[in-house]
Amino acid sequence: MNFLSSVFFGVKPEGFVKNIQGAIDNLNTQNGVFTGDNLFTFGRNLGFFEDEKFVNAWRGVVETPIEEAIVWRLHVVAWAAKSVISRRVPGDFVECACYKGGTARLVADYTDFKDQDRTYYLYDLFEHDPSMAHHAMPEHSKQLYQRVVDRFADMSNVRVTQGSVPQVLHEVAPERVAFMHIDLNNAPAEIGALEVLFDRLSPGGILILDDYGWLGYRAQKLAEDPWLAARGYHVLELPTGQGLVFK
Ligand SMILES: C[S@@+](CC[C@H](N)C(=O)[O-])C[C@H]1O[C@@H](n2cnc3c(N)ncnc32)[C@H](O)[C@@H]1O
User: Fold this and answer.
1) Structurally, how many domains does the chain consist of?
2) Which of 113, 168, 219, 246 sits 20 to 30 Å CA-CA off 55?
3) pLDDT > 80? residue 133
4) pTM score, two decimals?
5) What domain range is 118 assigned to?
6) Contact partners, residue 144, CB within 8 Å, separation at least 6
7) CATH classification at residue 186
8) In whole angstroms, what is the distance from residue 9 CA to residue 21 CA?
9) What phi and psi, each to the nearest 5 degrees, are found at residue 12?
10) Distance (Å) from CA 134 to ligand 1 centroid
């Protein structure tokens, strides 16, 4: 199995992709090759592509080349969600923030979330204005909140809330959390989310920090490392750029 995406961030695309192709051409065996999302591996199992349910859920949400390229990150999130369910870790699921709801939809499909006795809490601003600390996303708009609500119309245990994290968490939030995905692209909001929710993460629960390993979001790592260390937790930096914390 090989997966070849030409989505890389921070490169001059033409020359970079040509040289990656040159490197692939010089492999002794062209198996287990993964390119994309600033990863280049070879000789790997890439076992998530053998998981038919995962592949179907991923294919079901991919709308852009970037969403296709981040498949390894999505596997990490799906694995974490499935793990807390199979270990019966008590609590709800949280995503701060969900944007179009693509990752959450993948997780919900992969884990048959509608049959779970849990609620999936999704938060986002859904709109953007230039005064905000984080960057805009292409599909931010006045309509996005409703689009995400509609995307989960078949799942009564998914709750979509529009508002600013962390303030909105004081109005709507679970008492107990099993799985939490934080992807806010700005350090104060991420620390704010941790301040409210980390104590509610059950023992055995999993936290995934989407931006943790990316140099472009280094401020988040610099804020999160001491915050978590003060509570006795340390983040595992994954090759995907995500951070993983096991409670
Ligand atoms: C990279 S996107 C999230 C992508 C999503 N996790 C996924 O996997 O599809 C980051 C989102 O964070 C949201 N955001 C940033 N700061 C926020 C805040 N303080 N409160 C709520 N949402 C926020 C933005 O509106 C944006 O949609």
Assistant:
1) 2
2) 246
3) no
4) 0.97
5) 65-246
6) 99, 100, 124, 126, 127
7) 3.40.50.150
8) 17
9) -90, 105
10) 8
